[in-house]
Design a protein that fits this description.
Length: about 270
């Protein structure tokens, strides 16, 4: 009986161990391909083996269309975007980094995302709009993750994000680990402060603590990648590691494909 129980416990623990090491979901911020239109960027993501993307405001749709990604898209534009994503087998799992002011502008964004069935908005709301954004997030069932552009962004430092999300249960964090380096901050220390409120990661590496330092291949910069992965797993991160590779414009698909394959093995 004891032997049988030990076997069952071993299987159970093995299953738990397997869950703990479940591969990360990997996507790409289409800003990585911002030198082209949405249609071409989606095709580049597909060619790089990516099946999740974060769309960004203002990218021209392409495909013979005049519109751009944003809250003023027509229903026909929205059908085109969702149809292209379905055709390529890509999920648009988030949108941003968005900015707006006041109830009407924010609600227009949420309505657009609801039609696209996008569950996460990355944004940098003005502090006075946080209550509005939190209420809209609850109403539309779309979570919001605050992104950290470097100073003078209001959210460049983790304590500023933590203060913003403390009383807003529908708002978490989009941790841009590269911008932390550019701001002279330690990535592992910053990430640890967020705990389980990290809902998206803008994934990159940066070689120098300089404001305009270009991105590099993970492991070639200053970010302690093993610590990043360990902290995310420890805190039950279930979002997407969204590659945002802001270099080699126009010919970076090979690097993105290589990065995605490496990230899935971590």
């Amino acid at each position: 009986m004891k032997k049988g129980l030990l076997v069952i416990m071993g299987i159970f623990l093995g299953v738990l161990g397997g869950v703990a090491q479940k591969p990360f979901k990997v996507g790409v911020q289409l800003w990585t391909f911002h030198d082209t239109d949405f249609t071409s960027a989606m095709e580049k993501a597909h060619a790089a083996g990516i099946d999740r993307v974060q769309a960004f405001p203002g990218q021209k749709l392409g495909g013979g269309r005049e519109g751009a990604m944003g809250s003023d898209m027509t229903l026909d534009d929205i059908l085109y975007v969702t149809g292209l994503a379905r055709k390529l087998g890509i999920t648009i799992d988030s949108y941003g980094v968005a900015g707006a002011k006041g109830q009407a502008e924010w609600e227009a964004i949420f309505k657009m995302l609801s039609k696209l069935r996008v569950p996460l908005l990355t944004a940098e709301p003005e502090p006075g709009d946080l209550d509005v954004v939190d209420r809209l997030a609850s109403r539309y069932g779309i979570r919001v993750a605050i992104h950290n552009h470097p100073a003078p962004s209001a959210y460049w430092e983790p304590s500023k994000v933590l203060a913003a999300i403390k009383t807003h249960k529908n708002i978490g964090a989009c941790a841009d680990i590269g911008h932390w380096v550019r701001s002279g901050l330690k990535v592992d220390s910053c990430l640890a402060l967020y705990g389980n409120r990290v809902w998206n990661v803008h994934f990159k590496d940066v070689p120098r603590m300089e404001e305009h330092a270009e991105d590099t291949i993970p492991g070639m910069g200053l970010i302690p990648m093993p610590a990043v992965f360990n902290l995310l797993r420890k805190n039950g991160f279930n979002g997407t590691l969204t590659i945002e590779y802001e270099t080699k414009w126009g010919h970076n698909e090979g690097d993105v494909k290589e990065m995605a394959a490496w990230m899935r093995k971590q």
